[in-house]
Structure formats: structure tokens, C-alpha cells
Write a structure and sequence with these properties.
This protein is α/β, with parallel strands linked by helices and 271 residues long. Helix content is 46%, strand content 18%. The chain has 10 helices and 7 strands. Bound molecules: S-adenosylmethionine.
């Protein structure tokens, strides 16, 4: 699986059906990444807006910056930025054909089908580059090059924000193997590999916080259970069961402290 290109792995996980994902992701933005629940009563929709606000704060936007979203999914954060008044250019990259069609046709966003690991960042320089839940797909051996490419594509004084989960320490082999079942061709890295790669590229790390993925995984699971009939009609038993296994597996993965969800800000000096 690790020998295949990223596009076929992404297709296997993301191109099952946009309607299927809509059954369990938040209704407005359709984020497929960890939200911020401030309390137990909150809805997934509210929690995703909190997360988006947090990331927007880390991006320190004044309104006209040129921004690149690596792995933009269903255009969630790009749409949030547009709706909260960002007037600078917003560009997204995805490797999922289903997401691309949705982003362009339903959301009118500027999104391209491009592998951010192997292809150059068209349109550089950018003032801001961010990713939410995409670096998990980058194999450890690819990280150094990706951080260097990000550094080179940023304007002087620019910054990047990444939300991703990473292993705390050397992973248990069974975790690595099981993750291949859900994300074929992807491979998680240890956190220190991210930090070392960012620093080697020239970045200064100015923020690194840890957040809890479990409430979001629980909310998605509950929605998928509540929508079982519709989900089965859309994707069939095998795919439905895969997600019914994946979501509790991921919950346990965090419960057992194998990995942490980080939000990291890395900055390029002004000169
Ligand atoms: C977990 S989703 C997150 C989507 C979105 N950022 C969000 O918060 O909902 C991961 C995204 O990364 C994209 N992705 C993963 N690897 C990629 C690559 N090598 N090149 C471009 N996009 C990639 C997938 O297509 C998908 O859109």
C-alpha cells in the first residue's frame, strides 16, 4: 500500500459518496476534522465553528492575504474564511475528484486537483498556508520536502498553520497496519519528525497546542448510527461497516494516548 501513489489512497477513502459524508459531518461546513466542543451540550455545528475560529485566529489575517489550503476537503475552511470577511485570494488543493466537483460546482471555490506532496505549489508566493487534517496522509519520508516546499512558497514574514495528529513516540506496529485499512498509502509520523522537518526548513515554531479529537469522533459515530438506513442505501454494508469500525478505532487510538491532535504555527522570518 505504501508503494501506491497518494491519489489512489485518497480516492479509496474520500470518493465513496459526498452524500454519505453529509450524513454524519456538520451540516453547514462539512468539516472532516476535529472540532472544538466547549461543553457537552454543544452541537457538532457549533463545535466546528469554534475550531474554524481558532484556526482563523492562528492565521492572524488582516483581510487581504493570499491563502493556500492544503487538502481543503469540501471547502469548509475556505468558505468560513470567505464568510467571515476575508477578501484576499483563497486557493484550495485536494486529491479527491468528488470533493473537487463539490467545491467548484456547489461552493464556487477556487480549488484544484493537485498532489501537494509531489506537485509544486502553483501561484506562490502565499502569505498564509494552512492544512487541517491533511498532513496525516504524508509519509514520514516525505515531510522534510513538504515543509521545505511550504517555506519556499511563503512570502517573507508569512506563516503556516497545521492541524494534524501524530504519534507521541515510536508507534505500535499493529496501529500502523490497522491505519492502512482505513487510509491506504498514508502513514502517520511521530510529532518530533514534524517539528524537526519544520525547523530544518527554516521555520520558527511559535505555537503548538494539543486538542481532543474524541468528542468529534463520537458525534460522527452517533450521527452515522442514527442514519444507518440512508447510509446503507448510499454505500452498502461493507463501506458502512468500515466507518462503523474506523470511528471507534480512532476514538480508542486517542483514548490510549497513542497520538495527539496538534495545532502548530510555524513562521518564516521577514527578511
Ligand atoms: C481529513 S480531510 C480534511 C479536509 C478539510 N481540511 C477539513 O478540515 O475538513 C483530508 C484532505 O486532504 C486531502 N489530501 C490528502 N493528501 C493530499 C495530497 N497529497 N494532495 C492534495 N490533497 C490531499 C484530501 O483530498 C482531503 O481533502
Amino acid at each position: 500500500m505504501l508503494e501506491q501513489d497518494h491519489a489512489s489512497g485518497i480516492e479509496a477513502h474520500y470518493d465513496v459518496s459526498n452524500e454519505f459524508y453529509a450524513l454524519f459531518l456538520d451540516k453547514k461546513y462539512r468539516f472532516y476534522t476535529a472540532a472544538d466542543f466547549w461543553n457537552k451540550q454543544e452541537t457538532l455545528e457549533e463545535a466546528q465553528v469554534h475550531k474554524a475560529g481558532f484556526i482563523r485566529g492562528l492565521l492572524r489575517l488582516s483581510g487581504d492575504e493570499k491563502v493556500l489550503d492544503l487538502g481543503c476537503g469540501w471547502g469548509s475552511m475556505l468558505r468560513y474564511l470567505r464568510e467571515t470577511g476575508h477578501s484576499g485570494e483563497l486557493i484550495g488543493l485536494t486529491l479527491s475528484q468528488e470533493q473537487l466537483t463539490f467545491d467548484q460546482q456547489q461552493r464556487g471555490l477556487s480549488v484544484s486537483l493537485s498532489d501537494f506532496i509531489t506537485e509544486p505549489f502553483e501561484g506562490a508566493p502565499y502569505d498564509r498556508i494552512y492544512s487541517i487534517g491533511s498532513l496525516e496522509h504524508v509519509r514520514p519520508a516525505e515531510l522534510a520536502n513538504l515543509y521545505q516546499k511550504t517555506y519556499d512558497a511563503l512570502a517573507p514574514g508569512g506563516l503556516a498553520v497545521h492541524q494534524f495528529f501524530s504519534y507521541r513516540s515510536d508507534p505500535c506496529p499493529i496501529s500502523v497496519a490497522v491505519l492502512e485499512l482505513f487510509f491506504p498509502g498514508s502513514m502517520l509520523s511521530m510529532h518530533r519528525i514534524h517539528i524537526e522537518a519544520a525547523e530544518a526548513a527554516g521555520f520558527r515554531i511559535t505555537h503548538d497546542s494539543i486538542h481532543d479529537y474524541k468528542p468529534t469522533l463520537r458525534a460522527w459515530y452517533d450521527r452515522l448510527v442514527a442514519n444507518q438506513d440512508k447510509a446503507l442505501a448510499l454505500v452498502g454494508l461493507e463501506v458502512y461497516n468500515r466507518y462503523m469500525t474506523f470511528l471507534p478505532f480512532a476514538w480508542l487510538f486517542f483514548k490510549q494516548n497513542e497520538a495527539d491532535l496538534h495545532r502548530v504555527v510555524i513562521e518564516k522570518t521577514a527578511c
